[in-house]
Amino acid sequence: MSDIAIRASGLSKRYRIGLRQHYGSLRDVIAGKFFGFRAAGVGSGRRPSGRFVGDMIWALRDVSLEVRHGEVIGVIGPNGAGKTTLLKILSRITEPTEGEAEIHGRMGSLLEVGTGFHPEMSGRENIYLNGAILGMRRREIERKFDEIVSFAGVEEFLDTEVKHYSTGMYMRLAFAVASHLEPDILVVDEVLSVGDVQFQEKCLGKMSRVAGSGRTVLFVSHNLAAVRSLCTRACLIDSGQIRLLGKPDEVISEYLTSFRSSESPNDNLLAERSDRSGSGRVRVIRFEARASEDQPGHPRTGSDAEFIIGYTSTENKNLVRFEVGFVVVDQDGVAVFTCTTKMTRLRIFHDAPPSGRIVCKMKSLPLVPGTYWVNITMKDEWGLADSIMRAASFRVIYDGTGEFIVIPSRAAGHVVVHHEWAITSESMFPR
């Protein structure tokens, strides 16, 4: 048998902007006939050079790749780079415009977790339905049924219609079904962000076991620490092309370097960024991190700090149920902490102006010195309005003026917390 599991040669995929792409599925045919769906056009934003030709965009351009049996390849890159398009072509969901791909072995895909779930059916029924859609035989589903339910943690709601599930429960059950496939080749697209922190750890453990089982895995993720620990090689895709293929450390380093060279900490390019998701009704246009309003400059460890987000509404009207949040991540993409208006029960944004700036004030910034990134998300009454991964970077310094006298190195962790000590001569355990 050939040592090659996947061989892609000159893969390219072209889309017409503003028109719905049809993949020949029954669902799309029915939807097109009865409802006449049309996709929304591409929102305003900077177009990557070389990808647009008239009203056409090359989502993927001349990509060639070989993956050997037993390899675990991490695929990284900015949003809109072409990562998901590549996986959809390899999974036979869509056909390439040019080029070809050879797959040697049974393939399973975890691309859109939850595809095929029916809201009117119970969790039990959807396990069988979704398992069949993903290619599992009934006997295989029955054998793994208890394990799937236990992994998802939805035992009490198994016979409840999934339309009554919370989003987290729905996604946990969907991932549990999909992750129990046993194909020769597994294609995975950003599934480690499913559910709460505890379930994400279970997901990461499951992926680690899959990666160590000798199966071939193609793994797309923004979690660079997971890519570093799980993968034998990594592939950096940008603007529809492979920029670098090699050892995970080398590829991740190139990825981070490209971000640092293209984006400065407090620049004004956010309004032009095209690698974003959401409806676009509200857009992030600026980010700044500073010590405080009366003390500009880099935020300082142990001192008060401010995080400022500029925004604008494309509809030029007040915003209802406006929510804002950001996640501070380290250079591996691992979340350090999260701040959202919802966490603080802030009600002031129920009638926010159409454009402005939002200031998040923080007492005694706990970050140790170094460079960090922020992922920014905005929601309005209709749902996700704008989301940008690695929207901007900022630097934290230590000058000895804050709460802490001595700061540990980065090797000891990312945060330093307020704490107090006391000592007494009394025994902790009286005789």
**What are the secondary-structure elements, in order, as H or E?**
EHEEEHEEHHHEHEHEEHEEEEEEE
First-residue to last-residue Cα separation: 72 Å
- Low-pLDDT segments: 25-49, 263-267
**The CATH homologous superfamily of the largest domain:** P-loop containing nucleotide triphosphate hydrolases
Number of domains: 2
Find the CATH topology of the largest domain.
Rossmann fold
Percentage of residues in helical conformation: 10-25%
Order of the strands making up the biggest sheet? 6-7-8-4-9-10
- The count of β-strands is 17
Shape label:
globular
Portion in beta strands:
25-35%
Number of helical stretches of at least 4 residues: 8
Q: Architecture of the largest domain in CATH?
A: 3-Layer(aba) Sandwich
Question: What do these coordinates show?
Answer:
Helix 3 crosses helix 5 and helix 4 packs across helix 5. Helix content is 22%, strand content 30%. Residues 25-49 and 263-267 have low confidence and may be disordered. With 431 residues, it is α+β, with helices and mostly antiparallel strands. The relative contact order is 0.11. It folds into two domains: 4-106 and 183-258, P-loop containing nucleotide triphosphate hydrolases (Rossmann fold), CATH 3.40.50; 270-412, Coagulation Factor XIII, Chain A, domain 1 (Distorted Sandwich), CATH 2.70.50. Helix 6 (197-211) links the parallel strand 7 and strand 8.
